[in-house]
Amino acid sequence: MAIVKVNKKKHIYWAEINRPESNNAIDFEVMEVLEQILDEIESNGSTRVLVMSGSGQRFFASGGNIKAFAALKTEEEGRQMAERMNAILHRLETGRFWSLACINGEVYGGGCELLLAFDFSIASKTATFAFSQASLGLPPAWGGVTRLAERVGRSRALEWLGSTQVITSEEAVNTGLINKLSITSELRRNTWEWALELSRLEPDLIEELKSGTLFALDNSRKASFERELGRFAHFWAAPLHHKKVAEFLKRSRK
Question: What is the domain count for the chain?
Answer without folding.
Answer: 2
